[in-house]
Protein: ATP-dependent protease ATPase subunit HslU
Amino acid sequence: MNKNLTPRQIVAELDKYIIGQKEAKRNVAIALRNRWRRMNVKEEIQGEIVPNNILMIGATGVGKTEIARRLAHLAEAPFTKVEASKFTEVGYVGRDVESMIRDLVEQAVDMVKTAKKEEVREKAKDIVEGIILDALIPPLKGSPTPHATGMGKDQPEDERELNEKTRERFREKIRNGEMDERKIEIDVKQNAAPGVGMVGGGMDEASMINLQEMLGNMLPKKTKKRKVTIAEARKILLEEESAKLIDMDEVKEEALKKAENTGIVFIDEVDKIAGNSRGGQGGPDVSREGVQRDMLPIVEGSAVNTKYGIVHTDHILFIAAGAFHFSKPSDLIPELQGRFPIRVELDNLTKEDFLSILKEPKNALTKQYVALVQAEEVELTFQDEALERLAEIAFQINEEVENIGARRLHTVMSKLLNEILFEIPDTIGPNARIVVDNALVEEKLAGLVKDKDLSQYIL
Ligand SMILES: Nc1ncnc2c1ncn2[C@@H]1O[C@H](COP(=O)(O)OP(=O)(O)OP(=O)(O)O)[C@@H](O)[C@H]1O
Structure:
């Protein structure tokens, strides 16, 4: 994916997955492009440009997380989502808030590792092939000597040649998958440092991590012999060998930079840590305010210790989100408000939006189900009027029972197709064609819509 997309192009990409929410899309697009802009300005002001963190205000299930996640994906940026309210729970200690940065770095490390492994893939494949070959036909030990006693002069040479020839033949067979089912014995690495996680009492997360790593390094790395098919062995060994080929110090360094310069942290439910002016929400205000205070340095820019090294959070993009039904953004402490200068309100989704969400996104639910049953060679189609009715039902249940936004489409769709999915392939065989029409929607869902008590549980 092109990382230098213009704001317009970013919005166009987001449009492929998310219906509506134009303002939110435009703002995240600007924020993303600003990062690229920052990397391309003179170094002396690079450090001065702070990210314009965004506060998304909108009911549940209207696409807040989805926009942030897709944005990160587009930018190939490490992304993490955290629920702010979790920090107000019993047992919470101040430093826990930093765990969101540690998660982000973990993501960055995974991404960089995967990319690096890809670079060494071909080399690792060769090594793996050699290991599998050795397990099948061990190479002859030592070099043949012409003075070997007890054997004809050129017998060892013959033997060696034969061994080489056989190995070459098998190498070919391994390569083209002919021997995939054959079992061989390989050495597999065991997970080190079992049970270290239990040393938790009275320690903060950072010290725990350090201790864990220290113990992990001290314990001998155990290997265990396992009998597996060649296909499996290839997978396991490829993972191990490519891990050996990459330089972990390089990975760490790159990952820290990636997290610092491109990381996106999505903080959900910030409304739940805002003191509320109208009362009526659980949890003491002090602890909510405490969480905001702990969060502040991270959002303002500070150094966080992770097991991969120190991360500076100054240029990480933070996107906070909340419904703000019971509190207002102005109930957040002023310093934190100031750190989220861009406010966007997301629209509530309409019936028409629901219909579009069912049909249009690249990953639309209807497309997902069509693909699922296609795997069984069953053709599934949805009539337009049936989808309209479905959107209407989802909307109605949201209004009458509880508004969970587009998530309702998942439950309604699953109820609608449940039986069909169960019957394939037993009674609905391959090559069958199923048309979802209005009648089916009525049959499966109409009764539930009428019965509010029932729909609370089922839809
Ligand atoms: N505008 C939209 N277009 C397409 N799909 C959407 C839209 N809004 C929500 N969805 C779908 O609904 C589901 C939930 O959306 P999402 O996770 O973005 O909710 P949210 O607004 O972040 O709510 P919460 O704050 O409760 O997490 C996702 O599967 C998403 O694909």
The first helix runs from residue 7 to 15. The CA atoms of residues 12 and 25 lie 9 Å apart.
